């Protein structure tokens, strides 16, 4: 007897599964509020060099003080990182004149003055992470994703070794601790370390939530469950825009996005351990108890009776046979993903797809000001567009299959990014529409890859597989913000890079096997 057959007997999608899915959606809401927090945490407002000896210019307006002390760009705006070595009073007579001698232009010597109309404070204004220090500002996101990368490896192994629920609880507790420490940071080094550790913790949440819910749901409702869980990511996206709009001080913003983890910790009390994992690891009694609870909540009274009576007795016998078939004494590791030929191909191809999905998704998500919209509005619209994208994917993955949906969603993401390289900057409305379409395709690719990957790997290796692919994805996420620094080489080079990677990795998805309407594999032999 397969586990799917047992699920059908006790109710594969009833009140029990709905309760679990909604509880697991709470931490899912919290994830984008941290993963995309960099947009607001490290936002850089307009700024210019601080001008010394302001008392000398008491008779001049602010504009005139800037005119004689700060060089202009060709478009007439004041430069952010340079100043004149001495005031150029002749510019008051003719502001269109530009100094011919560049030797009088120097880098900022006395710090910077920031425009606080949009942000009370960010880490950029706190520690002057601008101009020559701009790389450190972008590196903040990279540090976070390095933590997520490490967490994917750690929690992928630990959740297969010690169970899904225990590791999810540990992840949430650590996320609260390190999130609050980040908010209390008194130096850039402290923030970098605590954000990295927050990334490690939240990686466990990201990795475990979907498979834990999926392992309790029957085949027919698996896609619906995956899409439902994913929709709450988009809700978190929209909530981030609202929270960031209301909280403009970076310390309190970190507190605001970390606090909801406490609610998730409390609600996790009602979520059971995965019965699939318990059976695969020979813990028959615990699996038996959870399955009886499932049957009772779903109204299958035949199974909601004492162990001595017939139906429950047969259930217990079936569980023992399944546990014996799983050979729980054998341990698996990440190396097991590459030992057999079919698993090796799945692991290599899915790793490439995950890299492309994350690289392009975070590349678009962290460029809120590049499409002509207000950054809060961009964040909100990018969250809104994800919901219809997920709805469409719900239909497509069941009609044309996982493989085609995955490949074309990622390829079209790349083409939309590439299109905005060609569209002139003055066409802001068209650029915004193409960007929003690209964000929709990007989220469709992310939604599909979570569902698809959880179906590709067998139960005994599912969390190892998710851990490995998440590790590769987070490498993409870690590199994505650093690619913006390539604009110093060529202004459009970051977008061209995101486009090329998305199209190439999307094409690799055609090499993966289809999983539509297939049973979840239990052991490696089911794959091979």
TrEMBL record:
Q: Which GO terms describe its biological process?
A: monoatomic ion transport
Keyword Transmembrane helix listed? The answer is yes
Q: Name one GO molecular function term.
A: organic anion transmembrane transporter activity
What CDD domains does the record tag this protein with?
MFS_SLC22A7_OAT2
Supply one GO CC term from the record. basolateral plasma membrane
Q: Which reaction does it catalyse?
A: creatinine(in) = creatinine(out); urate(out) = urate(in); glutarate(in) = glutarate(out); 3',5'-cyclic GMP(in) = 3',5'-cyclic GMP(out)
Q: To which protein family does this belong?
A: Belongs to the major facilitator (TC 2.A.1) superfamily. Organic cation transporter (TC 2.A.1.19) family.
**What is the protein's name according to its record?**
Solute carrier family 22 member 7
């Amino acid at each position: 007897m397969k586990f799917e057959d047992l699920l059908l007997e006790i109710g594969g999608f009833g009140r029990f599964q709905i309760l679990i899915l909604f509880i697991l959606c709470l931490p899912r809401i919290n994830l984008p509020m941290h993963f995309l927090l960099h947009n607001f945490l490290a936002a850089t407002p307009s700024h210019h060099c601080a001008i010394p000896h302001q008392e000398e210019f008491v008779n001049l307006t602010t504009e005139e003080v800037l005119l004689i002390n700060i060089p202009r760009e060709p478009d007439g705006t004041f430069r952010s990182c340079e100043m004149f070595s001495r005031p150029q009073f002749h510019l008051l007579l003719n502001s269109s004149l530009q100094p011919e001698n560049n030797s009088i232009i120097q880098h900022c010597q006395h710090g910077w003055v920031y425009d606080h109309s949009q942000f009370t404070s960010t880490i950029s204004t706190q520690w002057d992470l601008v101009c020559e220090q701009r790389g450190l500002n972008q590196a903040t996101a990279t540090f976070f994703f390095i933590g997520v990368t490490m967490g994917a490896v750690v929690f992928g192994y630990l959740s297969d070794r010690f169970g899904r629920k225990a590791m999810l609880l540990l992840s949430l507790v650590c996320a609260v601790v390190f999130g609050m420490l980040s908010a209390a940071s008194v130096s850039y080094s402290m923030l970098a370390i605590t954000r990295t550790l927050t990334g490690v913790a939240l990686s466990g949440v990201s990795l475990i939530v979907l498979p834990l819910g999926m392992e309790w749901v029957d085949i027919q409702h698996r896609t619906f469950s995956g899409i439902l869980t994913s929709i709450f990511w988009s809700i978190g996206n929209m909530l981030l825009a609202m929270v960031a709009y209301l909280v403009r001080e970076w310390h309190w913003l970190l507190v605001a996005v970390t606090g909801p983890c406490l609610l998730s910790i409390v609600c996790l009390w009602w979520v059971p351990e995965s019965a699939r994992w318990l059976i695969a690891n020979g813990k028959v009694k615990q699996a038996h108890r959870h399955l009886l609870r499932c049957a009772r909540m779903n109204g299958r009274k035949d199974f909601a009776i004492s162990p001595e009576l017939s139906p429950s007795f047969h259930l217990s016998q079936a569980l023992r046979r399944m546990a014996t078939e799983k050979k729980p004494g054998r341990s698996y590791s990440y190396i097991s993903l590459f030992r057999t030929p079919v698993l090796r191909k799945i692991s290599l191809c899915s790793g490439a797809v995950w890299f492309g999905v994350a690289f392009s998704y975070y590349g678009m998500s962290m460029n809120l000001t590049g499409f002509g919209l207000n950054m809060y509005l961009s964040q909100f619209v990018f969250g809104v567009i994800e919901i219809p994208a997920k709805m469409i994917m719900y239909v497509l993955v069941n009609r044309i299959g996982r493989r085609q949906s995955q490949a074309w969603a990622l390829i079209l993401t790349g083409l939309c990014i590439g299109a905005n390289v060609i569209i002139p900057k003055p066409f802001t409305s068209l650029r915004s529409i193409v960007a929003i379409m690209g964000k929709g395709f990007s989220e469709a690719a992310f939604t599909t890859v979570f569902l698809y990957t959880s179906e590709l790997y067998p139960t005994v290796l599912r969390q190892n597989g998710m851990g490995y692919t998440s590790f590769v994805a987070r490498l993409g996420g870690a590199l994505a913000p650093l690619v913006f620094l390539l604009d110093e080489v060529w202004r459009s080079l970051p977008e061209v890079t995101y486009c090329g990677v998305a199209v190439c990795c999307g094409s690799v998805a055609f090499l993966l096997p289809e999983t539509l309407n297939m049973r979840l594999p239990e052991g490696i032999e089911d794959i091979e």
